[in-house]
Specification:
Blueprint (H helix, E strand, L loop, with lengths): L1 H29 L9 E14 L2 E14 L6 E3 L6 E4 L3 E5 L11 E4 L5 E2 L5 E2 L5 E6 L13 E2 L14 E7 L22 E8 L5 E10 L5 E9 L1 H4 L15 E10 L5 E2 L21 E4 L5 E8 L23 E7 L7 E6 L4 E6 L4 E7 L1 E3 L7 E4 L2 E3 L8 E3 L8 E4 L1 E3 L5 H34 L3
Parallel strand pairs: 11-18
Antiparallel strand pairs: 1-2, 3-28, 4-27, 5-6, 5-9, 5-23, 6-25, 7-8, 9-10, 9-22, 11-19, 12-13, 13-14, 14-15, 15-16, 17-18, 20-21, 21-22, 23-26, 24-25
């Protein structure tokens, strides 16, 4: 009875596929708390033995065709550890490991498990020492990134000082003010000016010094003003000029110029500098630059003062610059581009993958960006253990880029993605798999009983 014998073999394949399915279910349950783990789903297919004619085929049971990893999003939990990173959306972290298998793409594996930390060299690594890939800041241009994918390495060196080369001042000078009776006198700047404000200027050593800017209206016809930038005379010279009466050190004028306004109180070109040349700074370099040599031996080279856009400059109407209208004189805003030295105090990782250093001088600097890899077919990736995936041609070429670009998702720091295993569904699958195994076992015992009946025919 070959058909009965075939039924035994067919039932055996059912036991084997049920065993394979149970193995996959058990693996899913075992990894229910494995961060970044993706649920496996078994895919079965039937086996065809032979055909007896049209529309008459006999099957030989079933077998495991493939195991599909379900790449749906896992829940994200907060860990409080800055370098723990979770991906919300599509993408994988790229990890370079010198011991990676030969079928990895350039020694790079891919993972959703973002439990990272810095090693002794400042490189961001996974628990096994694999180096996280990204884009480092371009040392020649702080606003740009290196186009080359490389190990993310954060060097905790100090931020060197930067001397001030540009001071931007935007203020309103009260058009109702009268010119002081006396021309501006550096020995009595407060008494011979209408308005004053201050700004910090940094030298090449990173030392900050207060520069006081005095504005005084000119007695000539029209709405014209004069400005003087002054610094403590003792900072400029070892033998500063002193007041002959009080003996007090007099401030030193380091820069000066004129501000002209039209009938509406908007700035008119030119703002003249000390040498009579325009002192309005823009991309064409209209301002006269000054060099300040301090008594300590430090200096500020190429310092320029800018009072905002004037009428006719670069198509602007003067509303972005200083004004002179009938309201109290006051500073609208001022900036300068220098700073003191600082050391790295803390890091911050943003959703776009940017790693920003926060320095003791209050500055923030982008040090690098964590890269994400995306694929045309995530199902084509091959599991490589340790929550890593290896590249295969079925997945398509990896496309690297910053988070939140293209189809790549966002990164959340101090967080990890949990396993996407649904335990309730796995228990349901376990029950149906157990029932299938019992049914196939019953097929074997039934076929065995039928064979017994055939043997008993000889008695």
């Amino acid at each position: 009875m070959p058909s009965i014998n075939n039924s035994l073999n067919t039932a055996v394949t059912g036991l084997e596929t049920s065993s394979d399915g149970m193995n996959i279910i058990a693996n899913n349950i075992a990894n229910a708390n494995t961060r970044g783990f993706k649920t496996d789903r078994p895919e079965f297919e039937d086996q065809l033995a032979f055909s007896l004619g049209d529309n008459c085929q006999l099957g030989r049971g079933s077998r495991l065709k493939t195991v599909t990893a379900l790449h749906n999003q896992g829940s994200i939990t907060n860990t409080g550890q800055l370098t723990d990173l979770a991906i919300q959306g599509d993408g994988f972290f790229a990890i370079r490991n010198n011991s990676s298998a030969t079928n990895d793409s350039n020694g790079i594996q891919y993972t959703r498990q973002g439990s990272f930390r810095f090693d002794k060299e400042g490189k961001l690594t996974d628990p096994d020492g694999g180096r996280v890939q990204g884009y480092m800041a371009d040392p020649d241009s702080p606003t740009k990134l290196s186009p080359t994918l490389s190990d993310l390495q954060i060097v905790t060196s100090n931020l060197p000082p930067r001397e001030t080369t540009l001071v931007n001042v935007v203020a309103n000078l009260d058009a109702r003010e009268k010119a002081p009776i006396e021309s501006f006198n550096p020995a009595r700047p407060k008494d011979t000016s209408n308005f004053t404000t201050s700004v910090t200027i940094y030298d090449n050593y990173g030392t900050g010094r207060q520069a006081q800017i005095y504005f005084n209206r000119l007695p000539e016809e029209g709405n014209n003003w004069e400005w003087h930038a002054m610094i403590d005379g003792a900072e400029i010279s070892a033998s500063p000029e002193k007041d002959p009466v009080s003996g007090k050190v007099l401030p030193a004028v380091v820069a000066q110029g004129k501000l002209n306004f039209d009938a509406n109180g908007n700035a008119v070109m030119p703002f003249t500098g000390r040498d009579g040349a325009p002192s309005q700074y823009d991309a064409m370099g209209k301002s006269d630059a000054i060099n300040i040599n301090f008594a300590s031996g430090s200096k500020a080279t190429g310092l320029q003062f800018n009072f905002g856009a004037a009428i006719g400059e670069d198509g602007k109407k003067g509303t972005q610059g200083s004004t002179s209208i009938a309201t109290n004189s006051g500073l609208i805003f001022h900036t300068q581009n220098g700073y003191e030295p600082g050391y790295l105090r803390t890091l911050r990782i943003e959703q776009d993958g940017a790693i920003r250093g926060v320095f003791s001088n209050g500055l923030e600097k982008r040090l690098g960006v964590v890269a994400l890899a995306s694929f045309s077919n995530n199902l084509g990736l091959q599991k490589a253990g340790r929550n890593n995936y290896a590249y295969t041609s079925k997945a398509g070429e990896p496309r690297y880029g910053a988070p939140q670009t293209g189809s790549r998702g966002a990164i959340f720091s101090s967080s990890l993605e949990e396993s996407n295993v649904d335990l309730a569904q796995q228990f349901v699958n376990m029950i149906t798999t157990q029932r299938a195994f019992q049914a196939n076992s019953k097929s074997i015992t039934t076929s065995d009983t039928m064979l017994d009946e055939v043997v008993n025919l000889k008695r």
